[in-house]
Description:
Elements: E1 2-6, E2 12-19, E3 23-27, H1 38-44, E4 49-53, H2 70-84, E5 88-92, H3 94-105, E6 111-115, H4 130-138, H5 142-152, H6 165-179, H7 191-194, H8 198-212, E7 222-228, H9 233-245, E8 249-254, H10 271-283
Parallel strand pairs: 3-4, 3-5, 5-6, 6-7, 7-8
Antiparallel strand pairs: 1-2, 2-4
Helix pairs in contact: 1-10, 2-3, 3-8, 4-5, 5-6
Amino acid sequence: MNDTVTSKDGTIISYLKVGEGPGIIILHGAMESAWSHFELARALSDSFTVYLPDRRGRGRSGPYGPDFIIQKEVEDVDALLSKTDSHFVMGVSAGAIIALNASLELKAIHKAIIFEPPLMTDNLVSVDWVDRYDKEISAGKVAAALVTGMLGSQMGPPALHRMPRWFLIMMTKLMMTLEGPSDGSDGPIPMKVLAPTLHYDVQLILEFEDKQKDLVSTIGINVLLLGGSLSPPYLKAAVDRLEKTIPNAKRVEFAGFHHGATGNKNRGGHPETVASEIKSFLLAQV
């Protein structure tokens, strides 16, 4: 089922609803949408009502707006928690940064699941690539921008990073062509439509590191930290950092899984395995 909620500033947030039971909101990551975790939602649907919002700037949800900051997305979560009477939140990648901030502020959240937020830990990753990415987006060079973002964020298998850039751009153009003409308004959102949103997810990372990183030690709820053994080192280091900082944190690392572990199977996900850990955590009487 598809529905909407109105955030504090009047922005409309669209979301999918799957299952029955206590509510959990899953916040997708960069270059993703509500549909990116549909199979995870189905794997949880026998125990929970799962709400999959399209974060700002995607699908039927409203735009970021000129004054976009993390707080805007926290307010989106707050509106959805209130409407659905939910008390659990899961954040994936950039969505995990929002979930961390929401857990600091929103009393309605009783438990949180955090999957590999892209924190800038131990100088293992840089965002120097963002200027080039922004220029390529502005010039309409979407495939080039996507390659810049993939290489800069260290996504994809190691072999991709040894391939010539022209080849990666050519392959990205082919993938975009295969996605067809859809604008994502009634299903999965294609890469060419998602591409401009990456700028704002990097903005979330920078704002978190500047203002909120030292506050996570005050999170008072139980938190499940998830990650994959094959994920880039900076993401594993981010989970290490949170494990040492959040007082009531439990950590699970999935052997043989990478950063796409929570997603649909056609994107390399393992939704049933991830759902099993989430159920155990949320249903535990603590």
